[in-house]
Write a structure and sequence with these properties.
5-stranded mixed beta sheet, Fumarylacetoacetate hydrolase, domain 2, globular, alpha+beta, 4 helices, binds magnesium ion
Amino acid sequence: MKIICIGRNYADHAREMNAPIPEFPLFFLKPDSAILPKRTSFYYPEFTKDLHYECEVIVRINKLGKNISKKFAHTYYNEIGLGIDFTARDLQEECKVKGLPWERAKAFDGSAVICEQFISKSELDLGSISFHLLKNDQLVQQGNTKDFIFSIDTIISYVSQFMTLKIGDILFTGTPAGVGPVNIGDTLRGYIGEKEMYALKVK
Ligand code: MG
């Protein structure tokens, strides 16, 4: 399976990164080895001094597809979850400045936190999913899918022009404003509405 991540899908996050609003979905991949195996502990990597959380709504693909039309994109997923796109911000900045690929900053082991339980999309209003992240019980990120620049269906249609989507692939839909650093000892808890989707400790 693969993990497809969208960059800059919220205008407020694009602004905080001093980056323009994209004209089409920007995406990059994480390998399956990026999935945090034990969802309760994350070990701070030695190669970064500026690790950031990015809390994101995630989507599990449940049907094989290529060149999916936007009209039928909703038939390719049933479950919505929440994840963290951990980012080594210092390495990412270096990659951006030098025009290098982002994998060192985004695709490392443990960089993809995926909730254990997903929520059936029939239980949610996909156009208005509110979610938030607590760091040490303080609210640090709050988002709503109504603020997406590109909808889930638009992203699926767009990405599937370039790569086949497979059953079990995970789509990270981008992070809202409020990204920031984590330190050893921090606790991160993500919520969709009032439902806790993950809780993990940085070690
Ligand atoms: Mg992200």
